[in-house]
Amino acid sequence: MPRLSLWRDNHGNDYKFFDRRMSEMFTIGGTDINVHKYLGPIDQGTSTDATQPKYLNQSEKNIQDLLFLENRDRKYDDSVYQMRGIYRINDNDFDLTQFGLFLTSDTLFIVLHMNDMVETLGRKVMVGDVIELPHLKDFYPLDPTDVVPAALKRYYVVQDATRAAEGFAPTWYGHLWRIKVQPLVDSQEYKDILDNIKAGENTNSTLGELLSTFDKYQDINEKVIEQAENDVPESGYDTTSIWIQPELDTGYPGHINNVDASDSDGSPDASDSDGNPDASDTITSPSLKVSGYLTGDALPPNGFAVQTGLSFPSSPQPGAYFLRLDYLPNRLFRFDGKRWTKVEDDVRTSLTPGSTNETQRSSFVNNTEKYMSGRIGYDAIRAAQPYVVPGNTITTSFSMSSKLIETSIAYVSTNGVRTQLNGFKVDNTMSNSSGNTAITITSNVSIVSGDVVEYAIFENTDPERVGLSQALKPTAD
Fold first, then answer.
1. DSSP string, 169-235
2. How far is CA 103 from CA 91, 94, 468, in A?
3. Listing from the earlier edge strand, what are the strands of the sheet with 436-441?
4. Is the pTM value of this prediction over 0.90?
5. pLDDT (tens digit per residue) in 419-460
């Protein structure tokens, strides 16, 4: 008589009996689960970066970025697969056994029937798949119906998957598949789902537009930055409220020559000409300011007026201030009657990262300049209206009012252009004009007759800013 044993080398009748009973249990007592099947990373096209290879076939086993081991741009199946699952519903409790507060119910452990899952999906549910739980749909959101016109769906992303311990039958074969899921967030990996699925039948809004909290966080961040800029508008120390006592050449304190009753304290006020003290008023302007660490703001002391520009005025009055914008940082000068003497540099800058932050760190991180080589053509234009094009030049026309230069150089979108006005660099844009290169000076400067406009067109352009991955990538000696 053979030995009694439930173990078989293959899936026999005992295995099939247990499997059918478990499948029936999921059919009767399970909840619907909609699965968005992960197909693999989206094809990025041909790349010269060996860490981002181009695959011949799309597969969930492909890795998009071999350096960071990431699949940032994921492709999901257009079809939605429906199956049954069972999980334990918990209350939203805080876990106080560790430092900080952690919600213990945002992670779900869902059990699926393995054979039904493979039959429906074509494979086992894996990390990266996205599931929807229809029974958790929120039909009563706090937002009004004109803001949220559809019931909010609940999506989860699979973080881990393995066989369930409770799914092993007496035959020692597993029948159940256990997945660990966490709430789906609005991130780059799931844009193929969030941006392509409508939120409901009565709206054209996408799922991402309703589920995303990006706009709300953006508004909060902007308000925090706005208040921070009001509290601390610039780095360093504000010295504009400090009165600087001017001195005469003799070393005595400066004064107002035509002092009246309202000027008995020697301080400029509304009785001085136009009410704004400047070099035209009979006031001695200070030649120095309070100096210290990050105190330079390029503002004249005591509220004096200041002119700005790229070159000094021709006939200044003694004591006049002038801010040179062609210096980096901008430099404040004072005319002492014989020469322009330096007062201070504008070293205070905005603490908020961006174009207004002119620190060396910001200029490196936000550097958009390009290194140019292989000069194709060069010309210098003496501005005049109308402009007469001399012979044997690459310039075909020039407009002083629109600051437009047209050339005979064939337009190539990858070329680069550098422009200067009277020896100072100015910004420009390059465009296609009937197949030739056209250059427009975009800097906020005026061009007058006699100014010299120089430009050069280059064949090769490379960003001056070096990417972190390129900077850290080792090269052979």
1. -TTS-B-EEEEEEEE--S-GGGHHHHTTSBS-TT---BHHHHH--HHHHHHHHHHHHHHHHHH--SS
2. 10, 5, 36
3. 395-399, 404-410, 436-441, 428-433
4. no
5. 999 888 898 999 999 999 999 998 888 888 999 999 999 999
